[in-house]
Design brief:
This protein has a domain at 58-91. Helix content is 40%, strand content 11%. The protein has helices at 22-25, 43-51, 58-70, 77-87, and strands at 2-6, 12-16. A two-stranded antiparallel ribbon has the order 1-2. The N and C termini lie far apart (53 Å). 0% of the residues are buried. Residues 42-82 form the Anti-sigma-28 factor FlgM C-terminal domain. Pfam families: FlgM (PF04316).
Length: 92
């Protein structure tokens, strides 16, 4: 039995009961692999990302992540938002 409903965001949702017909129970074909990012808009960003050095201090990142999780390192989202706006030259 198939039941189609609309979710709160307006997208259709289809549910198939356990007693679905045999054709629905057949193994589905594997999902296609996601397409690589080929957008001309993203190519310069991807090139810049590849050109960046790989010298990330993973130990320091882990320490900072733990300190944030424990509340030992203050985090002010409003301040971060202001810094991002200032860096990107917000015109508001």
């Amino acid at each position: 039995m198939r039941i189609s409903t609309a979710s709160p965001d307006g997208l259709a949702v289809q549910r198939v009961a356990d007693s679905a017909p045999a054709e629905a129970a057949a193994p589905a074909a594997p999902a296609p692999a996601p397409a690589p990012l080929q957008s001309a808009v993203l190519q310069p960003a991807l090139a810049a990302l590849r050109a960046m050095p790989d010298d990330i201090d993973h130990d320091k990142v882990a320490l900072l992540r733990d300190a944030l999780a424990k509340g030992e390192l203050p985090f002010d989202p409003a301040k971060l938002a202001g810094l991002i706006q200032r860096f990107h030259g917000s015109e508001s």
